[in-house]
Every structure is written in structure tokens, then in C-alpha cells.
Specification:
The chain is an all-alpha fold and 294 residues long. It is built from 16 helices and no strands. Helix 4 packs across helix 5, helix 10 packs antiparallel against helix 15 and helix 12 runs antiparallel to helix 13.
């Protein structure tokens, strides 16, 4: 039976320290979203309670959701029992958006991308900058489902699925721009950006989204998409936080800012891209076929 080491990138591929740092930043990106929105649900569960109830589900599901988001978000942040926490969050990022964001492609696709990043954490763990690595904690996923870390065929297929999920928001955004060209052009204009920039973004998202999908020059593509996602997050989806004044009232307003959701979806997408950059596209990719797999 092949081991996980055969699927993980070598230090020569991206640099051990660089990959470890990228995984740390990725975990911070993931955790920031889940800790923030889990805490907001804890502060006022009524909004999500009503949303769940409106979808003909028990509104009380908001309470285990709070525990899941805060608990697993914190575990991912510190890198403790990371595979278990990432598995639960991957499940959450597929199931919950499929129910509640089925009519919101932007949110749906970015949650799916986060799920792709979590799947890679399930396969390979959080990296050396984590409590799992420091304390050599017993890995519950490896113990309960050893195929996750030993079955090469399973690993490579899951890596391919992760790439598809991570590519989804970029290809989905291109489709959305084409279908709703007028509103999307207006959105860019409102941010002081020209239509030409939007078309350039569409070109980049198309080309590099496909590159991630098929695993072609994957690390270059993910690096550029990280930069693009960060730029668009601040240019188009900046929640407008007031960080100049240290005041409890202002801090509470920032905490409850309803415009932060899409911004933090971009943050989790950055986390997924960084995880893919660190671990590479896997052997079911054009990079592997062309001998570029680390």
C-alpha cells in the first residue's frame, strides 16, 4: 500500500518553509471566517434561526452550527486535530451552501472552494507550524479511516475533486459576468474600475480557473489567483470597516457588519488557493503528466 509521502510535494518543489508558511496563512484565512460568523451567530442566533426555519428545517440547528463553526474554526487555526476539524468543515461547506445559497452563485462557489481546501487538509494535515506537528497528537482521522492517508488512488482522486472545487468560483464568476453583464459592469464602475478591467479579470479567471481545474502550471495559477482574489476583495467587496477609531461601539458595528459575508468568502478562497499551492495538484493532473509534480 502506498503512503501519503508519495503524493505530497517535495521541499524542492516549492520550498519547505514557504509551503509551511502558506499553510499557516491558509488556516488563518479559514479560521477568520468561521470564528467571525460563528461568534456572530452566538451573539444573535435569531437571524440564522429564521433563515433555517424558512428552509423548512428546525431553527434549533443554529446552535450546533455555532459549536461547529467556532470549535472547528479554532482547531484549524491552531492546527490541533486538524484533519478531523477540516473534515467536518468540508462537509459543512458542501451541505449548508447547497441548501441556503443555491440561488447565490458567488457564495455557493466560494464555500465549495473552501471545501476543496479543507479536503487537502484532511489528506495532508496542517503542516509543521501547528500543534499537531509540535505535540505529535494522535490523529483521529488516520486512526478511524486509514485509507485517507495510505490509499494512493483515493488520495489522488480527492486531490482532483479539490482542484475542481477550488476552480469553481473563478469559472462561475466568468459565467455570472457574461449572464449579467450590465449589473457586473455597474459594480465595477461603482468601485471606480473600468469595463476593460472587468474583461481582463474575466480573461484571467477563465485561463487560470481552467489551469487549476486540469492541473496545468498549478502553482503559478494559484499564486496569480491569490493576488487577484485579494485585489478584488478589497476593491469590490470591502465591507467598509472603521478601523481608525478604537471604540467599543465602532468595534461592535464592525463585528455586526452585514456587508462582510462576501468579503470573507473571498478570504476563505485565498485559504483554499494557498493550500493547493502548498500541496500541489496531485498525479491526476497535466503537471504530473508533464513531469512538473513536486
Amino acid at each position: 500500500m502506498a503512503t501519503i509521502a508519495q503524493s505530497k510535494p517535495s521541499a524542492d518543489a516549492v520550498g519547505f518553509a514557504a509551503a509551511s508558511f502558506a499553510l499557516l496563512v491558509a488556516r488563518i484565512c479559514f479560521a477568520s471566517d468561521f470564528l467571525l460568523f460563528g461568534s456572530r451567530k452566538f451573539y444573535d442566533p435569531s437571524i440564522i434561526y429564521k433563515l433555517i426555519d424558512a428552509h423548512h428545517l428546525p431553527g434549533e440547528l443554529v446552535y450546533p452550527t455555532i459549536v461547529l463553526q467556532i470549535g472547528c474554526g479554532f482547531l484549524v487555526l491552531i492546527g490541533l486535530q486538524t484533519r478531523l476539524a477540516a473534515a467536518m468543515l468540508a462537509w459543512f461547506c458542501i451541505v449548508a451552501p447547497s441548501i441556503f445559497w443555491s440561488d447565490h452563485l458567488e457564495h455557493l462557489s466560494r464555500d465549495y472552494a473552501a471545501a476543496g481546501g479543507f479536503l487537502l487538509l484532511v489528506l495532508f494535515g496542517p503542516g509543521v507550524l501547528s500543534l499537531d506537528a509540535r505535540w505529535r497528537v494522535r490523529d483521529w482521522i488516520a486512526g478511524l479511516v486509514p485509507a485517507v492517508v495510505t490509499n494512493t488512488t483515493l488520495i489522488e482522486r480527492v486531490m482532483a475533486i479539490a482542484r475542481v472545487l477550488i476552480a469553481f468560483p473563478f469559472l462561475g464568476d466568468v459565467v455570472k459576468k457574461l449572464l449579467f453583464l450590465g449589473p457586473q459592469t455597474a459594480l465595477y464602475a461603482q468601485a471606480g474600475l473600468s469595463a476593460d478591467i472587468m474583461y481582463a479579470v474575466m480573461l484571467i479567471e477563465s485561463a487560470l480557473g481552467i489551469a487549476v481545474l486540469v492541473g496545468w502550471h498549478t502553482r503559478m495559477a494559484t499564486a496569480v489567483l491569490v493576488l487577484l482574489t485579494v485585489c478584488l476583495a478589497f476593491a469590490l467587496r470591502n465591507p467598509g470597516y472603521d478601523v481608525a477609531v478604537f471604540d467599543p461601539g465602532v468595534m461592535l458595528k464592525n463585528f455586526l457588519n452585514r456587508n462582510a459575508a462576501t468579503f470573507f468568502k473571498d478570504v476563505t478562497t485565498v485559504g483554499a488557493l494557498l493550500t493547493l499551492w502548498a500541496y500541489g495538484p496531485g498525479r491526476l493532473s497535466l503537471d504530473a503528466r508533464n513531469g512538473r509534480l513536486g
